[in-house]
UniProtKB/TrEMBL annotation:
One of its GO terms (biological process) is DNA transposition. Required for the transposition of the insertion element. The keyword Transcription regulation does not apply. Belongs to the transposase mutator family. Transmembrane segments: none annotated. Keywords: DNA recombination, DNA-binding, Transposition. The lineage of its organism: Bacteria, Bacillati, Bacillota, Clostridia, Eubacteriales. This is Transposase. The keyword DNA-binding applies. GO terms for molecular function: DNA binding; transposase activity. Pfam families: Transposase_mut.
């Protein structure tokens, strides 16, 4: 169950970042507002256990997942 939640979170983050910068991963276009710059690990504690997410980094802007508020890593962030 925890691995399915990790996969879902990864897909949500990729979709959110793609919408934010205006281009999909590995796609070049002139209308993009930023560029991807790798990933960073982020620990997320839930009641089901601890997940380690690979959060996309952006070159010119910060990115915080919509389901995890800054410095708050718990299931309460999902609600």
């Amino acid at each position: 169950m925890l691995s399915m939640l990790e996969g879902l979170c990864a897909q949500l983050m990729e979709a959110e970042v793609s919408g934010f910068i205006g281009a999909e991963k590995n796609v070049h276009c002139s209308g993009r507002s930023d560029y991807r710059c790798g990933y960073r690990p982020r620990r997320l504690d839930t009641r089901m256990g601890t997940m380690y997410l690979m959060v996309p980094k952006l070159r010119n802007h910060g990115y915080i997942q919509f389901f995890v508020t800054e410095r708050k890593r718990s299931k309460a962030a999902f609600i």
